[in-house]
Amino acid sequence: MAVKCGNNTIMLERPVHIINAACIVGQKEKEGPLGQYFDRFEEDDFNMDTWEQAEARFVEETYRKLLSETSGINEAGVDCIFGGDLLNQCMASAIGVKKSGRPYLGLFGACSTMTESMLVGSLTVDGGGAKNVVCITSSHFCSAEKQFRFPLELGSQRVPSSQWTVTGSGAVLLSSEGEGPRITCVTPGVICDYNVTDTNNMGAGMAPAAASTIMTHLADTGRSPDYYDMVVTGDLGSIGHALCKDILKLHDVNVTDGLYKDCGMLIFKPEQETCSGGSGCGCCASVFSAYLYRLLKEKKINKLLLVATGALMSPVSAKQGEPILGVAHAVAIEN
Amino acid sequence: MESDNLTKLDDKKYEWMQKKRNQKSSLLKNCVMAFLFGGGFCVIAQGYKHFITSGIGVKFLGELDEAAVSAHVALFMVFLGALLTALNVYDDIGKHAGAGSVVPITGFANSVVSPAMEFRSEGHILGVGAQMFVVAGPVIVYGTFASVIVGLIYYLVSRG
Questions:
Q1: For A156-188, what is each residue's pLDDT tens digit?
Q2: d(CA B122, CA B130)
Q3: What is the ipTM of this complex?
Q4: Domain A3-175 is classified in which CATH homologous superfamily?
Q5: Which chain B residues are within 8 Å of A212, Cβ to Cβ?
Q6: Are A218 and A226 in contact (CB under 8 A)?
Q7: Which residues of A touch B23 (CB under 8 A)?
Q8: Model pLDDT for residues A77-108, shown as the tens digit of each residue
């Protein structure tokens, strides 16, 4: 069973393998730098009537894809699904997994939900309460814009610090048996508030949380950053990535650009007019499922610290002048 | 009490760090683009005004007085804004034009039509009907309010 290590980190004792990962993304993501790794994309939103339905369909199809591509497991073999998205009351995840007939636990950690679900999922498997769990998250550019910003057809300009919500869904299958990279320890993050109120600068809102969780993880485990082949934050975008590095440096933790990457920067190229980079629950989910998981499987990297970051805000909190609260959860994945 | 382990970071220091890293849009470029696109809309409106007050226009609409001409032009521009929004073009113009496509009356049409389209999936009453003025509403409310204040001041000043 898992044991607490240091302040917040939890070491897993039993093996929890990521035995498979799957994702489906939209057209723009397919056209990005990681296009070759996305083996399935949707250009017409599955021809659904609404964007919310489209996002739910992304979840449903990704779940199906994950199970169909994993040998030796059928629908009934999944003990629990941990999922979440950005829409009110996690609407897309609930609709997306309703046909699965498996227990579902909805999680909300904004864009940090992917590692949050992997964290909770891995602890459940480690505790022996489940053998196989699915962790799945999604986001959709249009449904997120509708909920958090302005109508799509409104002729407004984007600010350079804003981010572009990734359309897509990613899922991983965690199992106590089988092969694949292992989740070895997890560090849930504390909420960081540095009075950032600009909703067009989420990267700045989340960067302290990312730095805080990384530092806690390193202190708790006694590791230095170069213990890992790659440290990847969720979706800070270019400004948040730079700020996170600044904060780490301020606290004498030095990470190089080669070691420290950000999913929001990996998924889009600057020419795609996505301003500071990608965001959304689907960002970290798709980048990990398609790209990072493959690097681990092919042993191109052997130790990865995945730190998805979330801005815990709602349209109401923003309008009432509440600052953007950042949170980040770290999951260490090793071969 | 510190809520996290970032002992060397506080709100003030972080604000300064953000300023250093922030990227701003180019003011000069935005102004030039707004001028060109905003001016472009005005040229279109002026062209339409010429059209309805000369030759063929007069044949169709008859001689119009000045108030009717202004109303005609405004109607035409609102229609144009709504049409371009529905055709999925206005947001692309807005990306480059900025204030140049927000300030003219076409921008007002865009701010009403775009939420109407966006919330169509939530029904005609609670979707389109209730959300249509979500962007334009404040402009109407405070525009009306400001006109009342100005009217009051005008009344008091003209009496004295």
A1: 888 899 999 999 999 999 999 999 999 999 999
A2: 10
A3: 0.89
A4: Stage V sporulation protein AD (3.40.47.40)
A5: 4-6
A6: no
A7: 160-161, 239, 276
A8: 999 999 999 999 999 999 999 999 999 999 99
